[in-house]
Amino acid sequence: MDTPAPYLTDRADDTAAGQVLGLLASLVNAADWLITYWYVPVAAALVVWVMGEVVMRRLARKASAERMALELVPTRHFEPGLEEIFRRGVQLARASTSMPWWAPRRSKAVQIRLRADGSSPLRYRIEGPAGGERLLSITPFGPAVTVKRARPLVDKPREHVVRAEFILRGKPTAPLRDVPLDPDPLQPLIDAVSDLRAELGDLAEIRLDIQRAPKWALRSRRLQLMSDARRRERREAQRAARWVRQDATGLEDSVAWQLQQLVSGKQGGGGRRLVMPPVPRRVNPAEALGKLADDDHLVRVQLLVLCASNTEGRSQARLAQLQAAFDVFGGGSRWAMRGWRVGPWRFGADRWPSRRGFERRWTLGHCQPPRPNWVRLEELTGLLKPPTVHCRLPLLAGDLPTFKFGNPQLLLQGIYHAPDGRRRLVASYAKETLFEVGVGKAGGGKTERALAQAIGWAHAGGGLMFVDPHRDSWPRALPFLAHDALMGRIALVDLNAHGPTPQVSAWNPLGMHQGQVAHEVVEATADAYAAALGWDDSSAPRALTILTASLAVLVAVNEAACQAGRAEDQATVFHVRALLTDAAFRAAALAGVQGRLDDETRSWWQTVFPTLAPDSFAVVLNPLTRLAANPVTRAFLGQPAGRYNIRAAMDSKMIVWVCPGGNGPTDRLITALLARDLLRAVRSRRDTPEAQRAPFRPYFDELITLTGAAPETIASMFEDFRKYRVHVHGMTQLLARLPTPVRLSLVQNASTLASTAGSQSAIAPITAEWGDRPGPAVVATLDRYEHYISLTVRGRRVGPLRITGPHLDEVFADYARPRQAAALERAARAMAGAQPLDQLTTRATDQLARVNQFLAQLAPTTEPAARLQKERYQ
Hints:
The protein is of the alpha+beta class and 874 residues long.
């Protein structure tokens, strides 16, 4: 029997309704199960998340183990442009992706490490994937930055450590402040660590991780920002419409509007006016998204900071300084420390639960910022490069050693004022301080600083020679050298001859009693005369020839006297006159040294000398006559065997104070003789192995006076003395007044350049060597005893930096022995062989007779030959 169609339809409807009810019942049961057993899916999801996180961490740790580190060391004149810095940022962003495909995103980052631990003002390191080493090793900075492979850093545990993580706060689409390159954007950070003290265990390190921004996160963030912008526009449009309606209603209900209607006769017509509400304006994506509008050169960053110290409170203070330094970068967006403060406590990276994650990211270099710190590369300009020429670096204890009294390896330079107010005596290494130049006006502190350096060197056992034409330095240094340990090493050669019973030392430039080489003595004396008198082969060839031939004969006479054990019978420079004008003396001298002269000299005396007119000797004899007319110089140079021996003083580390007595023509000739003898003595050290040459330091005060007498000699000193471990220190008021050879040699070879106050024109040659940083205007305004100085330490230049010159009464107060000053002066004069002036003058007058007597006894069998020589020259 067939079923009716209506019945089939009803049955189908019942079946569909049953399925719907069954589905609803299943959903209700499932919801009821979830409500009852909610912890089961939560636990499952947690297990999946934990397992995924464990796998990710292991993969990230494995990827981090393959990281490499590079250290960037800039030169002093490193000055990059914005384009170079931007290209470096692009390199860093590209290198962050140089990881295996399986590496998690947190490990795909490049890290910039800014570290200060006392070894340098700020070390700049780059750490990243090993695959990016080739890309990062070649920088757009060129040769101005040296890139070298860096070793792992191992820190000793510190007692007090603070940690901080900085995140971007403010408007998320707003950029950081555009910080200019001059001054260096790193300057605030370097200033924050400028008072770091390595001996207290201070450490400050900043780590900036850079990785490419994830695309999906950016798209999600952009959608959210656009939605927020549209929502704000709708709210603003609604608010504006509400205000428009209120304004329109208020206008129609006002008395003025009603009066207007009565006057116009339109009362009651038309009802209320139609008000059109404002339409929400279209959202501009560029305005709404800001720096997030484009994907190009957009990166995600993570900024971590750690400060440590062994002294309580210093690490917290350091972190506060760094926090203030990061405020400089604040604009529409700013760097803020993550965490919150509750009373005196701060909950951040130093406390649970953030500390463990901080330690993991710090140790492994993972980039997992708690919020999307998205920035453009242009905002990180200040951190993408090492310190530039526009950065003022602090001077740390590791950069310049601290002076220690009695240490022969250190040379006192001055007092440095640290940024925290501490004063420190700084020094340079003696073996690296080859030549030193001090410039500045009179009374500025040049001589005081040189005296302090010389006194410190003397107490450390070093030998020195202090040449002061004005003698002011000797009484100033006397109380600080009056120690029993030094009295046996100090000699005073004073030609000022003051007091009721003046005493003068003695020196024979032609003396051979100290083992000199004959031709070196002749050459040194002749060159000294030529330098002081301005002779050369073109202007005074005859004078040079006559003087050289005369000195050769007298030196041969002295050599014979010393070999005969009669050093008291030696000739002096004053006997040149007798040799040229006294035929008997000349004949006796030539006869006595016939076998000691070379053929050329002997031939000159036999053939050329008889043809010379008597007036040709005047140019040679005039300077000698002036020397003989002065009783002091006659006494000093007229002795047969003086005590002065600068070669012996160098080898025995003596302290020799030489005061020539002035800057007149006679004094310049004495100075030229002393300078040339010093040059000869230093060059004679070639007979001693280099390791056995005792270091010696000549100090030349008033270089203008000294170089006026012997310019070529002083220039040769600055060029040659380093080879013989003799290091010259020169002081002058005006560098421009020095002869050109001296000035060029001095500046070229100077290990230390120092300047006190003075006129800008006088200081400009020194500041030019510093690149006018500081400029002449800055140096010219220095106070007394203040210096700008550049030094050589461990092969590199340090400075110019500002120091205070050491004042003897302050620095060497414990070394002052004023009660022993008189005893030291007597001992110093005795060491130099000083005797009463009148006795030496009488002996110098009688010396010609002694030489004649010796010559008569030297060759009694050659009397006929001597008579023949006498007749020939008459």
